[in-house]
Design goal:
The complex is a heterotrimer. Chain A is of the alpha/beta class. Chain A contains 10 helices and 8 strands. In chain A, helix 3 crosses helix 4. In chain B, strand 8 and strand 9 form a beta hairpin.
């Protein structure tokens, strides 16, 4: 099942403009980079990216930047607060007639899961709470990637990282639900594999004022341990196995934008990755695989029974400012 | 003191090669320093590692600017100006390149010191079944050329370092086989005592204003000046007889190194394509072929 | 010009208002909170245009402040103690961006043990961040220093954040008569903010806060920041000249109090310098030639001026309201370094630690300091930092320890 598309019918319909030039020092096959490039394409020009420490911090390494847009590296914990400062300053200048409309910028926080799920959560929580008008892209590669792939609270059950001690009891934090409980104007999970779904979501969020949050599963050949050419296929498998649901929440109301007609077994997604190799070699660990499969099955069995949040009307671009 | 500088690509195992030589020298009761270049270890990207050993305490630190021996894991690195593999070559007693015996590289790349080549790739391919993990062969070459490390210490170091990387017993044994063979077949070179290079001007830095003095970049998109095409180990090539102009390869390229021409056909920017080969996988008609660019992979 | 009773906190808020700060990201912490409450009222009633926003922490607050300054808006923030050290990482960041803003710190001792009383360990933890630092003695000086701070911060030779420090309680909650400059005179002193480096605009993308992975480049940028901080002396001098012309009050990087012809000099910073001045008056009436050097500009450290001022003194005593465990007083070592670098060698140079966590420095303790200095000789050799502590305080400590159920331990050294 795929929801009807309103803005982009096919990949060919996506904007052709690029705001990220090649020549960045990120790993070959970086899934996070693909997501950022696609999102920027749809967002358009006139963006300032506010970055938290992570792999993407290396995008702008003196004297080079691949971005045709602006960039501010802050710290690991406070990118959303940086976004607040930039947005507020632009608003102050615009409202006092010192910033012509064509000079205004959209503010996009760019952070990995280490920052997003862990130390950056406080600053983002409060930015959402204040209704800050900004975009947020979390490239979730499920570990502290830039330091060599250590355990983060986004690391899924049984995935090996260089600091995993208790593989079986580690669980991925449900950030989508944590963010949703804040009633952001727009919230979506996306995949670089489904560029049209991603573009649709950016376009749907555009008219809303307030936090527009995107959580993207960022395939990581270096940390996950697979040949980079399989990056898109793994992103695809994450969706088709149901491990990475594609969904959105407008003012807290959840809608899945794609539901596989037939789910593939999660082992299809896990087995090609070195971080899950211990589940398959030297012996297939049926008990853990069955438990992980059951958890994914339970998620989809509960579809439509998400606890409903008290509805709040989304603010549109035309609504009066508070 | 012997200063060895190893050059390779992320994945070649030059860090491990440097450690094997360091461990071997340590087992020989020598003073040792070994270290990798930190922070740039991307797959396919040029990387380096350094090993120093001496019978006396080592009073140096950091990168090796004036190497006694340069060990190069793949010929393509010589063509990559950014990798600067021959920097400081005038002090070197030899340059070792992993290439077939008799490869004529001196003139092509202006290698000044005596050149030694040996085809570690072919041997590694034959023994291990893959040609990208070259650490044992590179370390063995370096150890033998110096003439200061015994086969016994070298092979013990290969075992030790590969065990630390959690290699299986079979892989460890095969690497020992490769190292022994390389060690056996190469000859020691003559090292002249290196002159300590104390040269260069020291100057006074003044205040230069806020714009120069801040780490900001005012040239958006200038990363295009950085040639990441040299990271590529495989080269994707579009078969335009097959291409339907669907554009999926362009969307799937992480780096945006595929452009769509006015006629709708995709064109690969080889100056920047890192060779991840996602484009070949996403092409619905399998219309993107691959050719190996770096022999040792 | 209005003269009224203001607390140091209110004076700081007035400084921000008269500087026409348009953006105030905030986070409450004792004893600073009154500043942001005052400013919140003024933003609410429209007397300050712009935006006031409460963040989730000082770390976020200062990030927002730096980001807004990098976007080209005049920004003000205030914090204290734990808040300052919680934000410390960001102090380094925003100074590295070379963006001008003013941060007021209301000094308070650091935890543990958690306390509310003032000392200078919090603000001195920020001494290596690249912020310019001004330390105030009076509520009037707090207001004036905020205005001066914007002139320094926005000076093209500097382009850095400036920290204005006032002591908690002794200034923050203490009312004194303060002259509040007229708004138009303040505007004459401090014009509109014109950024001296590119800010975030659609027509001119800029990457700021960029990673620098080469040691040579990193050294270059850090050294440029050092030179920029040093340029704050010239920027301060120019601003102070204008300030005196407009408002009649004169400020230097240091304040020399009765140091002409002095044999003995005390060196201090902050509000307790007032008490040292009282002691000086008393001693002078006894015919003893003593003066006080007050450290006002702490970064850049005015080493040459300090050395020139103390040249000719037989004895110098530095009273630090801070303690670097294992080293001693921070200012003592900075002053000693300044003297040595300028080949000024007072025969006697002594270090005293006083007034930590709000502890008083009594006149008896000042007398003890002077007597120590007067009776010391050049050949006494090196001397440890001495903690100023009275019998009354000692008895009180013993009493509290007993109440806490502590038994006397006969411990050695």
């Amino acid at each position: 099942m795929r929801v009807a598309r309103e803005h982009f019918k096919s990949p060919k319909g996506l904007p052709v403009e690029e705001y990220l030039t090649p020549g960045s020092p990120l790993c070959a096959g970086c899934g996070g980079l693909t997501t950022l490039r696609l999102m920027h394409k749809v967002l358009g020009e006139n963006v300032v990216i506010v970055n938290a420490a992570g792999c993407m911090t290396l995008l702008a390494t003196f004297p080079f930047t691949p971005l045709k847009s602006s960039w501010l590296y802050t710290t690991m914990a406070s990118a959303s607060a940086g976004a607040q400062g930039v947005r507020d300053a632009l608003d102050i200048l615009r409202d006092s007639g010192r910033l012509p409309p064509q000079e205004d910028l959209q503010v996009l926080v760019l952070a990995g899961d280490g920052s997003t799920y862990d130390m950056g959560l406080s600053s983002t929580s409060s930015a959402i709470h204040r209704g800050l008008d900004f975009w947020y892209l979390c490239y979730d590669n499920e570990a502290y990637g830039n330091t060599g792939f250590q355990l983060s609270s986004a690391s899924p059950e049984a995935s090996h990282t260089s600091t995993s001690i208790d593989l079986i009891h580690q669980r991925k934090k449900d950030l989508f639900e944590i963010w949703r409980a804040h009633h952001p104007a727009y919230l979506a999970s996306v995949s670089a594999h489904d560029a049209v779904d991603l573009a649709e979501k950016v376009e749907r969020a555009r008219s809303l004022r307030g936090p527009k949050l995107f959580l993207s599963l960022a395939v990581c050949p270096t940390g996950w341990g697979f040949d980079p050419e399989w990056g898109d296929e793994l992103a695809h498998l994450a969706v088709e196995t149901g491990v990475w649901p594609l969904k959105e929440a407008v003012a807290g109301v959840v809608r899945h934008t794609y539901i596989p007609n037939r789910f593939r077994p999660i082992a299809d997604y896990l087995e090609p990755q070195r971080r899950f190799r211990h589940l398959f070699q030297p012996h297939r660990n049926e008990a853990v695989l069955a438990q992980m499969q059951a958890e994914v099955d339970a998620y989809w069995a509960g579809l439509g029974t998400e606890s409903t949040l008290t509805p709040r009307a989304p603010e549109t671009e035309h609504a009066p400012r508070v | 003191m012997i200063r060895i500088r190893f050059h390779g690509r992320g994945g070649h195992g030059v860090k491990t090669a440097g450690r094997i030589v360091g461990t071997a020298a340590f087992l020989a009761s020598l003073q040792v320093q070994d270290s990798p270049v930190y922070g740039a270890e991307r797959r396919g990207a040029p990387v380096a590692a350094f090993t120093r050993f001496d019978s006396a305490p080592i009073l140096e630190r950091g990168v090796i600017d004036s190497p006694d021996l340069i060990v190069i894991a793949d010929e393509t690195l010589l063509a990559d100006a950014g990798a600067a593999v021959l920097a400081g070559q005038t002090s070197a007693a030899a340059v070792f390149v992993n290439a077939p015996a008799g490869a004529r590289l001196n003139e092509k790349y202006q290698i000044l010191p005596p050149l030694v080549t040996w085809d570690i790739t072919a041997r590694t391919q034959a023994v291990l079944g893959t040609a990208s993990a070259l650490s044992a062969g590179l370390a063995a070459a370096a150890a033998k050329l110096t003439g200061l490390i015994s086969a016994e210490h070298l092979l013990a170091a290969v075992r030790e370092e590969l065990r630390q990387l959690r290699a299986t017993a079979d892989v460890v044994d095969k690497n020992v086989t490769i190292a022994a063979e390389v060690f056996d077949q190469l000859s020691t070179v003559r090292f002249a005592p290196a002159a300590s290079g104390i040269a260069g001007e020291v100057l006074t830095v003044g205040y230069e204003g806020v714009n120069l003095g801040t780490a900001s970049i005012l040239a958006p998109g200038n990363a295009q000046q950085r040639n990441t095409g040299t990271w590529r180990v495989e080269r994707p090539e579009i078969d335009y007889d097959v291409c339907t102009r669907c554009g999926l390869c362009q969307l799937g390229c992480p780096d945006g190194a595929i452009k769509i021409e006015k006629n709708g056909f995709p064109v690969i920017d080889y100056d920047h394509c890192k060779g991840c080969m996602i484009c070949a996988q996403v092409c619905p008609l399998h219309g993107i072929a691959r050719t190996k660019e770096v022999r040792s992979w | 010009m209005v003269r009224q009773l203001l607390t140091g906190n209110a004076a700081a808020a007035w400084g921000a208002r008269l500087a026409r700060a348009e953006y105030v990201p905030a986070f409450p912490i004792t004893p600073q909170t009154e500043i942001i409450e005052t400013l919140a009222d003024w933003f609410a009633d429209g007397s300050m245009p712009g935006k006031f926003v409460t963040l989730d922490s000082e770390h976020s607050m200062l990030t927002a402040a730096g980001a807004a300054a990098a976007t080209g808006v005049r920004t003000f923030a205030a914090t204290s103690s734990q808040g300052l050290v919680y934000a410390l990482e960001v102090l380094y960041s925003v100074a590295g961006w070379r963006v001008p803003l003013v941060l007021v710190n209301v000094s308070r001792g650091l935890s543990a043990p958690i306390t509310l009383g003032p000392d200078h360990n919090d603000v001195l933890a920020a001494r290596d961040t690249g912020f310019v630092q001004l330390h105030a003695e009076t509520c009037q000086e707090v207001l004036d220093s905020v205005l001066l701070a914007y002139r320094i911060a926005e000076d093209a030779r500097v382009s850095l954040p400036v920290l204005v420090n006032l002591d908690g309680f002794f200034l923050s909650f203490t009312r004194e008569p303060v002259e509040i400059p007229e708004a138009d005179r303040a505007r004459e002193f401090l014009g509109d903010f014109t950024p001296v480096q590119p800010v975030f605009r659609a027509s001119r993308p800029v990457a700021q806060g960029v990673a620098v992975l080469e040691g040579g480049l990193y050294s270059y940028f850090r050294y440029q920041m050092h030179r920029a901080v040093q340029n704050a002396v010239a920027a301060h001098t120019a601003a102070a000249t204008d300030f005196e012309r407009l408002f009649g009050r004169r400020y230097g990087t240091i304040e020399s109090y009765r140091l002409d012809g002095a044999d003995v000099a005390l060196v201090m910073a902050g509000s307790f310098t007032t008490k040292a001045k009282a002691a000086v008056e008393r001693w002078r009436s006894q015919g003893r030639r003593v003066g006080v050097l007050r450290l006002r500009m702490v970064r850049p450290f005015p080493a040459a001026e300090i050395a020139a001022t103390l040249a000719g003194c037989r004895a110098v005593g530095v009273i630090d309201q801070n303690l670097s465990p294992g080293l001693g007083g921070i200012f003592f070592h900075e002053v000693a370094g300044a003297l040595a670098a300028h080949q000024v060698q007072p025969p006697v140079l002594r270090s005293f630690i006083g007034g930590l966590g709000g502890k008083d420095i009594s006149q008896a303790e000042f007398d003890h300091v002077l007597e120590t200095l007067e009776s010391a000789h050049a050949h006494d050799g090196p001397h440890e930092a001495e903690l100023l502590f009275t019998r009354t305080e000692w008895d009180q400590v013993r009493n509290r320890l007993a109440l806490a159920g502590k038994t006397w331990e006969r411990s050695a050294t």
